[in-house]
């Protein structure tokens, strides 16, 4: 499965059913410029629609993982200076929703998304990693809800998703103060799964986790992601009802489960069908 790779701010490779996306503007600390907001959702959607991989790993280059929103994004559009005030504000709301959608794709993707974070993870980068399934970091990593220092409120998902990942009191402290949360505190709080000595060690470990995920039934893993995210946002009884409904259609033991048993009996790795490709031009 080949991907377009016509991206200005990142690169992507697919190997052994693992898609590895790398932010590659190290000289700008991988800040999120205008091109990023086009590239990022496009590559996630491309992988998802093509079922090009069973797991996505996102890492970056240089000293810092990502310095957040490039300030040029705030000053780029001057075309609405003479727009009537109510319509100007309605346009701003739609702009924020459009930016939010760029990170919502991480939750919507059928395959898990793993983040490998080194150095600074600042502002919009916290919005991004909060939408991923798992986070890993180096010992020099730090996390900062930087927007408060700029006189604004974070609006792309941090304040909505972080309270589901770490304690509410800690989220409020980080948001109110804008202070940096170091790697060891992030691990203790449950934001990251593991902390590694350096980026090379982190990537080796994260790729090993990704390989374990890629070895499982992609339909079963996708079901886990769907159910866990649903349970996060719903009560237990509704979530139990949803998994019962899911199983009534998705659980076909003669397929992936039988293949697992056969592979074990034959001392080989199981071979599962991939998820189906999604054709955006078709409703079926």
Commentary on this structure:
By secondary structure, the protein is an alpha/beta fold. It folds into two domains: 10-214, 2-enoyl-CoA Hydratase, Chain A, domain 1 (Alpha-Beta Complex), CATH 3.90.226; 218-265, Lyase 2-enoyl-coa Hydratase, Chain  A, domain 2, CATH 1.10.12.10. The protein has helices at 34-50, 72-76, 85-108, 124-130, 158-161, 168-177, 183-189, 199-214, 218-233, 236-250, 256-265, and strands at residues 10-15, 18-23, 55-60, 113-117, 120-122, 134-138, 142-144, 180-182, 194-196. Strands 1-2-3-4-6-9 form a six-stranded mixed β-sheet, with helices on both faces. A three-stranded mixed β-sheet has the order 5-7-8.
